[in-house]
Amino acid sequence: MSIKKLIEVALPLDKINEACAREKSIRHGHPSTLHLWWARRPLAAARAVIWASLVDDPSSHPELFPTEEAQHAERERLFGILEKLVVWENSNNQDVLKAAKEEILKYNHGEFPTLLDPFAGGGAIPLEAQRLGLKAIAHDLNPVAVMINKAMIEIPPRFAGKAPVNPEARAALLDTEWSGAKGLAEDVRYYGEWMKQKAYEKIGYLYPKVQLPPEEGGGEATVIAWIWARTVKCPNPACGCEMPLASSFVLSKKKGKEAWVEPIPDGDKVKFKVRQGKCPKEFESYKVGRAAVFKCPVCGEITKDEYVKAKGMAHEIGNQLMAIVAQRRHERIYLSPTEQQACAANINPPEDYPSAPMPDNPRWFSPPAFGMTDYCNLFTNRQLTALTTLSSLVSNVIAKIEKDALVAGMIDDKKDLDADGEGARAYGEAIGVYLTFGISRMADIDNALCPWEPVKTQVRHLFGRQAIPMLWDYGENNIFNNAAGDYITSLKSIIRVIEKFEIDESTFPGIAEQYDVQADCGLRNIMISTDPPYYDNIGYADLSDFFYIWLRQSLEKIYPKLFSTMLVPKTDELIAAPYRYKGNNEKAKSFFENGMLEACKKIHQYTRDDIPVTIYYAYKQRDLNVHGTNFSGWETMLSAIIKAGFTITGTWPIRTELITGLKGKINALASSIVLVCRKRSTDALQTTRRNFIAQLRRELHPALKKLQESNIAPVDLAQASIGPGMGVFSRYRSVLEADGTEMTVRSALQIINEQVDAYFNEQVGSMDTESRFCVDLYLQNAYDEIPYGEAEILANAKGALIPKMVEHKVLYAKAGKVHLLKREELPSSVVPDEQNIWLLTQQLTHVMEEGGIEACAKKVVPLYGSNAEHAKDLAYRLYQVAEQKGWTSEAFAYNAFVVSWPDIQSKAAELKAAQPEQLDLF
Fold it and tell me: N or C, which end of the chain has less CB nearby within 10 Å?
């Protein structure tokens, strides 16, 4: 008998998703703040998936758990461990981790397996594998991704438990326990401060203080940021002023501290004056359309996008200082621009700075269309000077650290970091890696595409999404201001992450290497968990060049092979990018599909037989149009996995948004699906369409019932049901259609979804006649009116009576019109023995909407029998209808009711316990 792992049977999905959603709000110390990477998977999800893939489900051991009750009890015990494991605060809780590791060892012959992530990216999966005691290996073609993984799983274990080597720490003679990577973090802090001081000595004069006017108390203040607007000559020949291209003139929206900039015409120029108070609507923005469409403040002429682009390509777009943001006594002060402050930024570029052409791909890169064709064009000359100055100091600080390390007694093995060195030289280079990360992070918030945020009153970083968009007015940080954009502030985020690496001598040092996923890396009999790229959703290599050029500036000598190319390798990057094929979508699609199939074949070669492979699929909602035909990337991924020799044994939707907090589209909740796969048997049989459907019906309906019983959210049920459905399809060598051709994945998905519909229709079919009528009427018209005659035909077909339903107050029927009453129009009192499940579902859903869990529980307490459970089951079907119809608020209401059902039950049980004389609840 095949040993099923927990992830192939059940998961406490709501608790995992709750932890994933909460994790999004965690900033301090979260590994995602070490260095930017796009579309990282939540650590909680990675941790849960790895652990549940290694622990046996109790049903696999009938000798230990002979009854369903015993298996359920053991599964709940495992759930308890997992629910604690995914909580962010327990990330380094040794008691929680010890319990989790003991279960891994119990079911894996007393050993921790080796895990490979061949698409390591931001490193969530390898990091969590290492946290759970596994030997973690991270592969990626992208050097930036490789460096992120080295900084998380490779470097910290090598220097675990070592005291800092800097003179300040040594002189302090502190009796400090430098556990984990705390010593490493302390040295990053000290030598980062040293670098900042040296940089200030060289270029501090470029960041002058500002003179405050008498109304602000006079004296000097430190500038936090300079607010600039791009300018272009007005297209009106009669005007010809240098007009500002400003999207906003608002500086602060903070209550009581509002400020804005007034553009004042002055001949052929525009001057700026900072005003206090709320910005008048007519001055909020002179941007009057999409793209580069602005109004001239002098003559009112409107620019055209083509005009501004032409000026940009001719390098005739300028910059003008709009405002100065200073700080004194922890308060922002907004000042009008001065000649002195504008001149301080008017410098030549440094002699040596990194750059490269940006891709000609307007989907991800807007600036090239406006003449900003190279990466260096994204920075002001002052910003280029600051970043190159800091970069030039890295080699100096590495040499200094090596000397200090030798004085501190560290071994002198004269081996480089890239050669597995553990002595003073390697240690200096290791600190240099993190100091370089600080520069790379600075580049994200110290460039000329960073918007000024008037609510938080600070400069925001460039990469708010997976693209480099054009920006017209921008904030330039003072890199010595001890706030956002400052080098030490950038380093502090990195230091907090390093401090949280709880590692010791027992931690297996991770390995991060550059590998093309389509090439055989030589590994065998290992565990695989990975998050591959999705079609053309993110251009990782193209976007990474922004950081690569700065990382390479300082790290090329430390990792010469990794940084041997001028830019990030792109030819073999596994995405579907049509621009690389001169706009040919079919060639891009073919490259991705063939490459993904080859990657899955390699994964099949590497993986163990006794541990399932887990693959994250980050999708766009259009890929999961389960009742239509547009499956695109979803279909490609499933096809590649199945053709590579895998059978799919589970699908689990991972959410990063809390359902109860969502006010927008319900179907955008899940951010990825985890596919659980096993190697298909070499003697797998072929079958027919008819047999496939029969087997699917036998297995899918009980699986759906289990999913409902586990209270999976309706929004997740459609995706989760694909697992058992595709499990049936993929276990066969092939499924033959009536004409002898092989059934496609697309056809299988459509059949699976038809069976899901059939399952819910069967549930509705077993309900009372009035409820069946109401569901059908809802499906056809929601709460809209239909002619009485049509309603009567439908009622007769169901054996329902319209007058009875009117009397029951679920239906309106007058003047030849009939419609369902909305939830707020239904009777507020719930009858204890209510037999109309439609009415009961609507009443409970409405109470949940209006009063929450406790109010709903009070209505549930007096109910007889199992009708409340039937109401919950009907809510699944009604969610499905509403989701298909695009009735967002309806879908949200049913989803919230079902998701809250366990809490409603618990609260009802509490209330019932206080009223022991009442009848049994369930």
Answer: N
Q: Dig out the tokens for 546 from the structure.
A: 């922004």
**Per-residue pLDDT, 534:** 80
In this prediction the pTM is: 0.86
Backbone angles phi, psi at 525, to 5 degrees: 55, 50
In sequence order, which ranges of 556-688 are alpha helices (DSSP H)?
585-606, 632-643
**Residue 168, number of CB atoms within 10 A of its CB:** 13
Q: Tens digits of per-residue pLDDT, 378-395?
A: 999 999 999 999 999 999
Q: What angle do CA 887, 891, 895 make, to 5 degrees?
A: 175
Task: Specify the 3-state DSSP secondary structure of 433.
Answer: helix
**Cβ atoms of residues 674 and 49 within 8 Å:** yes
| Per-residue pLDDT tens over the stretch 752-783 | 988 888 888 887 778 889 988 898 889 888 89
What single DSSP character describes residue 607?
Answer: B
Residue 460's identity, in one-letter code, is: R
For the stretch 69-107, what's the b/e string if a residue is b when 16 or more beta carbons lie within 10 angstroms of its beta carbon?
eebeebbeebbeebbbbbbbebbeeeebbeebbebbeeb
* Residue 236 vs residues 243, 294, 301, 672, 813: alpha-carbon distances, Å: 11, 13, 6, 51, 66
Q: Are 504 and 157 in contact (CB under 8 A)?
A: no
Which residues, other chains included, contact 364 with Cβ-Cβ below 8 Å and sequence gap of 6+? Answer: 466, 467, 468, 539, 542, 543
Q: Could you give the 3-state DSSP secondary structure of residue 655?
A: strand
H/E/C letters for each residue in 862-890? Answer: CCCCCHHHHHHHHHHHHHHHHHHHCCHHH
Structure tokens at 373: 């064709």
Give the residue among 119, 2, 127, 113 at the shortest CA–CA distance from 602: 119
- pLDDT at residue 653, rounded to an integer: 81
